[in-house]
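pasting for ref. prot 1 ->
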Amino acid sequence: DGLRLVRKRGELMKRAGELAPGSMAAILGVDIPTLDKVCAEASTTNEIVQVANDNCPGQVVISGAKAAVEHAMAGAKAAGAKRAMPLAVSIAAHSPLMASIQEEWNQAVDAVTMNAPKIPVIGNVHATVLKTAEEARADIKAQMQSRVRWTDSVRAMSAAGITSFVEVGTGSVLGGLVKRIASEAVSYPLGNPQDFKALE
């Protein structure tokens, strides 16, 4: 069910990008409050840009209408950003430009049986522990248009005593971000047979 939802999410986000093309940009060296202000100033009623991914302190992705993203990139540079780089995408993930497929996404999430988590799960919309199936379902739905609070999520795990992180998938990008958020953390990639052997 989880893999089917991931596939459905990708298909819907692609369609949203076709219905309402947007863009995303990586901003380096500006804090979140400053970038929130820059995005608010760059947005208009019909063209919105917002923080989409709070990856780690000093590394943030913004998302929204192309013109608004371009204005926000200029605003970020004026506010002291070290770099503002457009990403090679045609969708505006984690922004209101995903609204066109939100209802279909909600239906897909509602169609899946969910149980209360047996181990603590940090939802990335609010960076808090999801205790019930209903909370998990709401977080997964809201995530389509909401900011990914990765920095706050890692800090919440770190505050709960978590020091070891396993990154499932190819590469170790998240492990690098974790290390920049929680310097005491140890990260283990889990993407190939050798990684599995190292964890034994």
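and prot 2 ->
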Amino acid sequence: AALQPISIQFSHPNFLIERWQSEFGQNAVNDLCRWNNRPAPLYARTNRARISVTNFLRDHPGSLVVPDHDNFVAVPSVPVEALAHGQCYMQDPSTSVACRLLDPQPGDRVLDACAAPGGKTGYLGELMEGCGEIAATDRDQQRLKSFEENMYRLGITNVRARRHDWLGGPLDAPLFDKILLDAPCTNTGVMRRRVDVRWRLRPGDFERMQKQQLAIARAVVPSLKTGGVFVYSTCSLEREENENVVKRISHEFPRLRLEKTDAVLPFRDGVDGAFAARFACR
């Protein structure tokens, strides 16, 4: 008997299958669909401001360091007590890509433009060793409340949270040394963690999200100092939201020089999908 269409085999909309076939090839699409249909493993970022990785592993038998992500561990179950004491934060290793590209240093003045619920902000604070300042914004007041609770638990004391909708325009604040824009996106890189995404998405959503991402970038970039660093990131696999946005940013802001891009792909790297681009400001 003939095999069923791949969209039926793997329970994915046909338009997603077709766009991924065009972008990644058939074998990668099969692997990606299988990935999306598996239960998501549990990962935690150890908060080295509170505990060393060695001590976390000692206290949580069965936990394993994730290769190439030395402060992320795969955990057999949710480490409830460690979470309560701020010793870790549940997040996929792919979230570290943007933070490493931004490379914040102690003493920097940093903007995390779409910060809630705070996983990346917490990592930035850890990298800055509590020195300097992080301005964290989000447009949702309830999400900001959860964000502030997370920062308190993690012991990140150099963060100041503020409600701001970038679609309404720039922020009234002094300029920043480094800016992270982890933009709203279609979430196709984290589809197995968000099971509604595959059936909620429509073909027009990728261009729609690109317009929103560019609008936010246009409002955010003017807050960057000359000599500073701007990182744009998503958890999308789609060219419209990643490479194409980077091209538009480079075109619209000649003072930004693209230095590096980085991407993780589930079928290649064994973690959730993510994309990040680092610009230097001339």
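The radius of gyration is 19 Å.
The chain has twelve helices and eleven strands.
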